[in-house]
């Protein structure tokens, strides 16, 4: 009997999307349950399986549960073929090192997009080039011609960074930043990831519009650039 998986999520959580990309890349069937983002509205059963009350959480056969996106991704990769991590121990360790760097990369993007004022937005965007340059340099040194981090096959590194490169792209459409253009290897990697079927299938329908709606609902400064007609941008002055 096939293992049953249920992924707990918020509608726009990038860390859940990381797990969903792995599930999609491996063609694993799963259900998804959306948890209210308001902490006091999260159900008791969810709080019991997620010690810090955050998503993602993965329920396995209705009995076991895992939390933290990296742990979930590694568990899925170790238990269900095909493997996304390299077989070579050194290459696998290097991949793990770059997944450990992901929070630094993610914070730079997230703090900018969720800034509450233009002053904060302008200050936070100045922090983006440093992690972008480090990833661009790592991509330049790979020694392969494939579109993904390890070559021609999607990896756990790709699954981790894709959600944040996607959100950077959404932000850049609302408020052009002239940043990623400086990093050709990173830009090409971003383009490959956003075109990947597993990445495309890892979100809700009309995800860019849903993400923009969250900016407006949460009162973020960038939300001022969202068109009242849906996905689109005006000048966020």
Blueprint (SSEs and pairs):
Elements: E1 5-9, H1 14-25, E2 31-34, H2 44-49, E3 57-60, E4 64-67, H3 69-79, H4 89-113, H5 118-125, H6 129-140, H7 156-174, H8 184-195, H9 197-200, H10 207-217
Parallel strand pairs: 1-2
Antiparallel strand pairs: 1-3, 3-4
What does this 3D model show about the protein?
By secondary structure, the protein is of the alpha+beta class. It has 2 domains: 5-79, Glutaredoxin (3-Layer(aba) Sandwich), CATH 3.40.30.10; 89-200, Glutathione S-transferase Yfyf (Class Pi), Chain A, domain 2 (Up-down Bundle). The protein is built from 10 helices and 4 strands. It has helices spanning 14-25, 44-49, 69-79, 89-113, 118-125, 129-140, 156-174, 184-195, 197-200, 207-217; strands spanning 5-9, 31-34, 57-60, 64-67. Strands 2-1-3-4 form a 4-stranded mixed beta sheet, covered by helices on one side.
List the main descriptive attributes of the protein structure presented here.
single chain, 237 residues, alpha+beta, Glutaredoxin, Glutathione S-transferase Yfyf (Class Pi), Chain A, domain 2, 2 domains, 4-stranded mixed beta sheet, 10 helices
Radius of gyration, whole Å: 18 Å
As residue ranges, the low-confidence spans are 233-237
How many separate domains make up the residues?
2
Task: Give the helix level as a range of percent.
Answer: 40-55%
Secondary-structure content class:
alpha+beta
Number of helical regions: 10
The strand count comes to 4
User: Strand-residue fraction?
Assistant: 5-15%
At CATH level 2, the architecture of the largest domain is Up-down Bundle
Averaged pLDDT: 94
Amino- and carboxy-terminal Cα gap: 57 Å
- CATH names the topology of the largest domain as Glutathione S-transferase Yfyf (Class Pi), Chain A, domain 2
Coarse morphology: globular
Main-sheet strand order equals 2-1-3-4
- The H/E string reads EHEHEEHHHHHHHH
């Amino acid at each position: 009997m096939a293992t049953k998986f249920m992924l707990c999520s918020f509608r726009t959580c990038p860390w859940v999307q990381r797990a969903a990309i792995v599930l999609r890349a491996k063609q694993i069937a799963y259900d998804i349950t959306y948890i209210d983002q308001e902490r006091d509205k999260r159900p008791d059963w969810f709080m019991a399986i997620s010690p810090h009350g955050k998503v993602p959480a993965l329920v396995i056969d209705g009995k076991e549960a895992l939390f933290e996106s990296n742990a979930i991704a590694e568990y899925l990769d170790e238990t269900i073929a095909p493997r996304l991590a390299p077989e070579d121990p050194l290459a696998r360790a290097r991949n793990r090192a770059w997944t450990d760097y992901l929070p630094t990369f993610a914070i730079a993007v997230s703090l900018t997009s969720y800034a509450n004022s233009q002053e904060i937005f302008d200050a936070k965007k100045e922090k983006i080039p440093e992690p972008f340059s480090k990833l661009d340099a790592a991509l330049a040194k790979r020694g392969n011609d494939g579109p993904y981090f390890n070559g021609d096959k999607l990896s756990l590194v790709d699954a981790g960074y894709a959600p944040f490169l996607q959100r950077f792209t959404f932000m850049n459409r609302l408020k052009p930043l002239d940043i990623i253009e400086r990093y050709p290897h990173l830009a090409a990697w971003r383009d490959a990831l956003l075109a990947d079927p597993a990445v495309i299938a890892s979100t809700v329908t009309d995800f860019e519009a849903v993400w923009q709606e969250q900016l407006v609902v949460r009162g973020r400064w960038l939300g001022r650039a969202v068109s009242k007609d849906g996905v689109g941008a005006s000048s966020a002055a």
